[in-house]
Amino acid sequence: MAPKKILAIAPIKFNQQIYDSIVLELNGIVKGVEAELFETIVAMLPEGGPVSIENFEQEAQAVPYVLDVAKEYAGKVDAIITLCMADPGAQYLRAIYPSTPIIGAAQSAYTVAQINLVNPTSKYSVVTTQKETVPLVQSVVDMYQVNNRVASIRYVSMDVIDITNPENREKLIVALTEQSVEAVKLDGAKQIILGCTGMMGVAEELEKRLNDTLKPENKIVVVDPTVAAIAVSEMMIKMQERQ
Fold it and tell me: Which residue, 159, 185, 187, 154, is CA-closest to 172?
């Protein structure tokens, strides 16, 4: 049986470094038996798309291109992921392709974080890229009505180009660790959500450093929105097959 196809749209202008990083990380997520059942296709935006999505203007700039990319693959894939914590265009795609699961990375991350909470009244914090990105993240929190679950939105003062540069991996993890420790100590967070899909691949190391540093009673889980989106996509495809 041919594997089910998942289209992961990274809603920024094509960048070879970022593209290669996404493909590498997704290959690490979808492996073993899953690799025989699911195939992930990565697409980025053409010239005219934003170089990153860290504010409302860049999000608005990305949406038409996201719709164009999705149209190109319509009928050829079994699920579509918007691989960005702003979920750009996801609501429009759901209206245009009602029979295709449309998975937003942000919505997936918030859903998984809620499931992971030991105490349902506990909260999680989001750690994003830069200060200017906080209002955009807050707007998504508002849209999904998870304000009562978000302890804080923090940032590492690094842009998307910086965080996706392999040479900056340790710098990123150190900054994430610092902000996450403060989120736990000062804001009362019990979990951390990576606030940018460009941070994929660091959750495991961040989680280890956090728990080694804080030694909490209950393990602090770090949610990678890309991993969450892939998991939700696979689940949605399987559910459709059973209907």
Answer: 159
With CA atoms as reference, report the closest residue to 106 among 165, 149, 71: 149
> For 15, phi and psi rounded to 5 degrees?
-140, 115
Task: Evaluate if pTM is beyond 0.70.
Answer: yes
* pLDDT tens digits along 19-72: 998 998 888 887 765 778 899 999 999 999 999 999 999 999 999 999 999 999
When computed from its CA atoms, the radius of gyration of the chain, rounded to whole angstroms, is 17
What pLDDT shows up at residue 27?
83
Largest CA distance in the chain: 51
pLDDT value, residue 209: 97
Say what the pLDDT of residue 21 is.
Answer: 87
Residues in the chain with pLDDT < 50?
none
What's the rounded Cα separation, in Å, for the pair 29 and 231?
A: 9
Distances (CA, A) of 29 to 40, 56, 193: 10, 30, 17
